[in-house]
Design a protein that fits this description.
Oligomer: homodimer
Number of domains of chain A: 2
Radius of gyration of chain A: 20 Å
Number of strands of chain A: 0
CATH superfamily of the largest domain in chain A: Tetracycline Repressor, domain 2
Shape of chain A: elongated
CATH topology of the largest domain in chain A: Tetracycline Repressor, domain 2
CATH class of the largest domain in chain A: Mainly Alpha
CATH architecture of the largest domain in chain A: Orthogonal Bundle
Distance between the termini of chain A: 71 Å
DNA sequence: TAGTTTCAAGAACGGCGTTTCGAAACACTG
DNA sequence: CAGTGTTTCGAAACGCCGTTCTTGAAACTA
């Protein structure tokens, strides 16, 4: 007997898509409930029914970012060169960050005062770690469950995150050559160091 | 003939101090013009005359953070152990971040939508780089102006920043042992790798 | 004391996140 | 076909934010 619902999953997806467009085009400051609702052709009340609150909307953006990055990482086919396969993870992540800097910042910085990701939220990043762990194990020739492998993966992810953050803020270097050279220096050095540490044990 | 100003540098310092207290106790969401003014015993108009706008207030917090960190780094006396001196920079930075996590986030994350640091703002970080460069040069036995030294310093700063960000968000590990082990693994590996790269050339 | 000039702060404005509430839209009954 | 009941929708309203303005007080000169 009731009137039909229009605030369904399809609308939720549309609101989310519009929010990300708004984020990329105008930064975090442009993502307001009114503008998001207007761009998606609905009302603010709909946004609040679908996402709970503004933090819920940003959390969905956060998850969508990890889903997109994971999808891109999964596409990269493994080759017979374990070292190149590992580097390609960081290259892919970097290109993702340069293509969608605002979305990347939602994932790894904190441009919305309303949303501070908690431990539960960061479980979304687990699938990305697993991709790194698999390739680290191949390079080090260790088991994927070996603490050495996991520790190395954390080291690499932390470094890549720091490098990308520095590049996005413009502090890694002025020219693209210096940026790339420093990325290469850092990643090569840590992989080399992790390998020798493994060889010694 | 005028009445004396009360909105002077002393009040500005007090407002800044109260802002940082408010930030550390209640997070970025607690730092509002009204609360800052109230806690400092003045009005919002005074805050705006002193800092221009909210972004100006946050920028001052940003600079104060770098000033405090630089002061702590300068205190650490150089010893005859170059390697230990380098590691102490990262230990000091880490302890600073754990002691003042919100202030650290203002410096390296972006918890205020109002303030996005630009290239000009990041020059405040230069003094911190110079401290790292000096100690990297000692470890690698290179000149402080050698590109190799500068590249290595950027690599190390990026890694430390990534490690601290991961630790603050709780993704580096559950127990403090695993966190410290991973920090040590990462920093040791990259320094080792940077040294061998330098030895080869 | 009167006049003049500067300053301080409370009130006001638009926009934000969020909630409320009356109207609208459907299915079913008589 | 009109009426009823139930559910959904969205315009408007609320409080708080950053920011600005207006009003009135304060301090100095003459």
């Amino acid at each position: 007997m009731p009137r039909p619902k229009t605030r369904d999953d399809a609308l939720k997806d549309q609101v989310l898509t519009e929010s990300i467009s708004l984020l990329e085009s105008g930064g975090a400051i442009a993502v307001t409930a009114r503008r998001v609702a207007s761009d998606a052709g609905t009302s603010t009340a709909a946004v609040y029914e679908l996402f709970g609150d503004k933090a819920g909307l940003v959390r969905s953006i956060f998850f969508e970012g990890f889903a997109r990055l994971a999808a891109e990482l999964a596409v990269v086919a493994p080759s017979d060169d374990a070292h190149a396969d590992l580097m390609s993870v960081f290259d892919t992540t970097r290109r993702f960050a340069l293509r969608s800097p605002m979305l990347f910042e939602v994932m790894f910085a904190r441009p919305f005062t309303e949303f501070e990701p908690g431990p539960k939220d960061f479980e979304a990043a687990t699938q990305i770690y697993s991709e790194v762990i698999r390739r680290v194990a191949a390079v080090l020739d260790t088991s994927e469950t070996d603490p050495t492998t996991v520790d190395a993966a954390h080291a690499l992810v932390a470094l890549d995150r720091g490098l990308i953050a520095a590049e996005l803020s413009g502090t890694l270097g002025r020219s693209s050559e210096s940026v790339e050279r420093r990325r290469n220096t850092a990643l090569t050095a840590i992989i080399d160091g992790l390998c020798t540490a493994q060889d010694r044990s």
